[in-house]
Amino acid sequence: VQLQASGGGLVQPGGSLRLSCATSGFDSDYYAIGWFRQDPGKEREGVSCIASSDGSTYYADSVRGRFTISRDKAKNTVYLQMDSLKPEDTAVYYCATNGQHPSISQYVLCGLRLADYWGQGTQVTVSS
Q: Looking at residues 8-32, what average pLDDT do you find?
């Protein structure tokens, strides 16, 4: 099971970025996938997760209405479109899944951070 996050960078407040999570070594269509972030000195936060079954989604209150998670099954990739970025969105962003429970609820994956396979992070910095 491998997940590789990319797409981070430096962006001004109000700008946009799209993160990509390329998956390999497993059929990610059947797994819930999530995006998490962590800033130094803070707990890791579940930002957005997408279910394996019907594509149902979860968003943290802090990003709802600004971020959109989506899945391209043909490319085995999960995206996080981030719009109207704020300085407080600055963090290292990770994509992850639960290999033992692929059909885990998106609420449980994100809310309880029950992921056991993690990709390397990608830095997002929002600053003027």
A: 95
